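Q: Predict the bound structure with magnesium ion.
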Amino acid sequence: MDPYSVNMDIKPGPLLKHIDNPENLRRLSREQLHQVCEELRQYIIDVVSVHGGHFGASLGVVELTVALHYVFNTPYDQLVWDVGHQAYGHKILTGRRDNFPSNRKYGGLSGFPKRSESPYDTFGVGHSSTSISAALGMAMAAKYKGERDRQVVAVIGDGAMTAGMAFEALNHAGVADSNVLIILNDNCMSIDPNVGALKEYLTDISTSPAYNRVRDDVWKLLGKLPVGKHFTREMAAKLEQSVKGLVSKSSNLFESLKLRYFGPIDGHNITKLVDVLQDMRSIPGPKLLHILTVKGKGYALAEKDQTKWHAPGLFDKVTGEIHKKHFPTPQPPKYQDVFGHTLIELAEANPAIMGITPAMPSGSSLKFMMEKMPNRAFDVGICEQHAATLSAGLATQGLRVFCNIYSSFMQRAYDQVVHDIAIQKLPVVLCLDRAGLVGEDGPTHHGAYDIAYFRCIPNMIISAPMNEQELRNLMYTAQLDSTTQPFVIRYPRGEGVMPEWKTPFQAIEIGKGRKLRDGQELAILSIGHPGNFAAAAIRDLKAEGLQPGHYDLRFVKPLDEELLHEVFRKYKKIVTVEDGTVKGGFGSAILEFMAENGYKADVRILGIPDRIVEHGKPAELQHECAYDAEAIKEAVRSMMSIEVVSTKGWEKK
Ligand SMILES: Cc1ncc(C[n+]2csc(CCOP(=O)(O)OP(=O)(O)O)c2C)c(N)n1
Ligand SMILES: CC(=O)[C@@H](O)[C@H](O)COP(=O)(O)O
Ligand SMILES: [Mg+2]
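A: Predicted complex:
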């Protein structure tokens, strides 16, 4: 049976149903594009309401998406979508309409553009602010290969534009002499409201009479140019002079970086967009078109509460009611909320505590502290590197910073952690939310690598709570004066296990694990939340007469060596469980301990394997990666049936 057969009820509109690729779109008249936009928007609403995914961002670029595929010769001309959470319309127009209901599902379409999925997806995305660099690379390659007619377009949001990477790319694009068009999709929103001086600058450009005059003059000039013909160099130069002359009056940031700036224009006016893009195609060199759009456009509730409708989950498209699971008993809270509420409790008692998030106040729940203590908790924009070094700077002044960054986004700030935090041994608390397999966002967002990439850095303390109480106690421990090193606390997306989570604080001795259960013959060593999978497996195995011991190490670094000596003296069969990479992770740390101490045992390491893990529900992926309760039971059963320690084991000296 077709696993997505439920989608048969969702029908694309009469024009959209015949658009199997952009060629079909390009055969339509300009007048028909209004209807295409309407149908595309409706199809996104129909599918996302039932199947989930990102929502507001794609609604906001419906007109832009249609205009881009109408004007440009995709896939020969190349479109690079920044982040890619707004590319649903692009997917639907480029041959994936009927498969779109499988979006973000196990085995289905990726929620982001992905090169292996379609020739129209020119660059794999998910993390923000890569589009200008990637597009510039493509444009430079086209120039080098003599493909003068090839156009490259980067579409980047105002939120993504705040990142250092975007500025690095702009700095290069201005002098690279390549045909790259950057479209700045300005909706004044990141996931939460966009922040920073750039946001204010963009608002100024959009509202200032001087800029509006410039814009009108430019379009008048463009309007005089022959439609359907390419500009001559002379005409382009004249236009450039004119624009520069007018814009320089207000010293345009992008013009200063040697990019021709056009706009701002209404990004929901499809006719205007098509006209402007057609003109832009003929203008050589690097240029930037600033468009103004509304996130969630066309779905009133999404326009009104844009953060909530960034990725709302399933909802009733008619009433707008977001479906919530209803449980008869109190459910455990999300780890992120335990973090958010606990930080306020700690900050109320410790005036040195500050909170930092790079653009994820809602996702990390730092918003609770930002609302309550606005002078002590800050959203710094999509700027993970800055967030890390800013935290280091604050720490030099004796402040206790909780810098909350999703595990996969922390990859951006690796050098800052090494150079600015670890080498200087600054006691910044790095809270890594979304550690482990995050689910539907897939490989770009899985928090797979942090144990491995942080474990090799001297001075780091690396911990992972098995439940809410442990998270609170680790946070409490991290801010004590006696803690003098960088302190990582990693925890997963979603709920923990303790409905009654608000437990009294207790300091945890750094590097101390805990024995949860004595056993026979085999011990399970776990780190973090997957310890609950181990506990569930152990409960089931009891019925089979198997009694593994269970140790929650709490810290990957420093390891509880005393506890490990106890373990290796008693058990000769070991299963390690983690939601990080098998290579270089927690299990590897245990193997190192064994090697260093000459222990001999059979060891099985369960965790994320050495390959790219795709998207799906977390439980599906944990099962595929074989570290869920079922896999742990399997591992225990198979190891218990082995009599003799394998020759692969370590020989005790
Ligand atoms: C490096 C990185 N940090 C954070 C995120 C999380 N994130 C995804 S979309 C988004 C907001 C992007 O805002 P913008 O570029 O303006 O796009 P919009 O959603 O407004 O269309 C954020 C913060 C990310 N994808 N990558
Ligand atoms: C596109 C993107 O990067 C974010 O929207 C991300 O999907 C948020 O993830 P959470 O839902 O885990 O906050
Ligand atoms: Mg935005």
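A: The pocket of magnesium ion (ligand 3) is lined by residues 157-159, 187, 189-190, 194 (CB under 6 Å).
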